């Protein structure tokens, strides 16, 4: 399994709506509002790095009101 953290800039006054939409995505494990440079962070989980990219491009970036994203990826250490 691969973990990704997606940091998002969102349109003002759309944080709550986007938070709810992200929370409904199966691949999104956690969503948190932030103060500072970014507005939201989502933790996503997928089979591989290619799937992480597909989730971000096809499911997250298509949500209206998301202006920009930055993604950090990692793996689980057992």
Task: Set down the secondary structure blueprint.
Blueprint lengths: L1 E9 L4 H9 L4 E6 L6 E7 L2 H12 L5 E10 L3
Antiparallel strand pairs: 1-3, 1-4, 2-3
The description of the largest β-sheet is: 4 strands, antiparallel
Main structural class? alpha+beta
Average pLDDT for all residues: 94
Binned, the helix content reads 25-40%
Please tell me how large the radius of gyration is.
12 Å
Total count of strands: 4
Low-confidence stretches: none
Straight-line N-to-C gap = 11 Å
Which CATH top level class fits? Alpha Beta
CATH topology: Alpha-Beta Plaits
CATH structural architecture: 2-Layer Sandwich
Give the number of domains. 1
The best one-word shape is globular
Number of helices: 2
Strand content: 35-45%
CATH superfamily: Lrp/AsnC effector binding domain/regulation of amino acid metabolism (RAM) domain
- H/E element sequence: EHEEHE
Strand order in space, largest sheet: 2-3-1-4
